Amino acid sequence: MSEIERPEEIEGGQDPAYVKGAFARIADNYVLTNHVLSLGADILWRRKVGRMVAAWNPSKILDVATGTGDLALELQRKCPHAEVLGTDFCEEMLAHAKERGLGETMVADALQLPFENARFDVVTVAFGLRNMENWKAGLREAARVVRDGGHLLILDFSLPGGVLRKPYVYYLNKVLPKIAGVITKERDAYEYLAGSIDRFPSGNAMLALFEEVGLKEASWTPLNGGIASIYVGVVEH
């Protein structure tokens, strides 16, 4: 692991007050904007996660930082016999999740989840860990509420390598905020989101962070050349 950032150097995250306000402002157009900016790829990413989670045959699933419920709704479809609960600290986002059909929602801070230890078979976080105040603390808290042998899954943006990296970074920082600004009238919120991807650990750096918080059998699946990634770890208390 000498070639990657140590977890101690990357545990920091974002300003929670700014993040909460930004998401409250873009909540009404969040789903549409995501689909436009990813050219619909985010839908396919969540479907893949849904298939992965369904293969574990869980009975209790927690989707942390569920936002407008995109992943939780997919998990409801793929795991019809499971209890699926979506939590978020932004009530405006959760209101959309409820309207879209998410059966169970709860306002909760991802760093202080109101659940006993080992309650869930699977915990997922889609595009939410990156926005937390402390990434390592967010992983530890998510793992705390997963039973022994259960899974923690993170889906988030990452930076591709090779020839894709430079054009993607240009799109991320120059093009994406402009398009999102037209749709939402909140360009600054998407300038923040683009910048957050630059700082967020990905690939081997994220696997190192998984190792640091005690997750086992950590795996990394790059998506669309690495512009997003799925990370999975098994919990052992």
Question: How would you describe this structure to a colleague?
Answer:
- This protein is of the alpha/beta class and 237 residues long.
- The protein is built from nine helices and seven strands.
- A seven-stranded mixed β-sheet has the order 3-2-1-4-5-7-6, with helices on both faces.
- α6 links the parallel β4 (120-126) and β5.
- The chain is globular, with a radius of gyration of 17 Å.
Secondary structure topology:
Blueprint: H1 16-26, H2 30-37, H3 41-55, E1 60-64, H4 70-78, E2 83-88, H5 91-99, E3 104-107, E4 120-126, H6 135-144, E5 146-157, H7 165-184, H8 187-199, H9 204-212, E6 216-223, E7 228-234
Parallel strand pairs: 1-2, 1-4, 2-3, 4-5
Antiparallel strand pairs: 5-7, 6-7
- Which strand order do you get reading across the main beta sheet? 3-2-1-4-5-7-6
* Total separate domains: 1
Q: What are the low-pLDDT stretches, counting only 5+ consecutive residues below 50?
A: 1-10
Through-space gap between termini: 24 Å
Q: Please identify the oligomeric state.
A: single chain
Please state the overall shape, judged from the principal axes of the Cα atoms. globular
| The CATH class | Alpha Beta
* CATH architectural group: 3-Layer(aba) Sandwich
Query: Any idea of the CATH topology?
Result: Rossmann fold
* Coarse structural class: alpha/beta
Average pLDDT, rounded to a whole number, is: 86
**Biggest pleated-sheet summary:** 7 strands, mixed
Query: Count the strands?
Result: 7
DSSP helical segment count = 9
Amount of beta strand: 15-25%
Order of helices and strands: HHHEHEHEEHEHHHEE
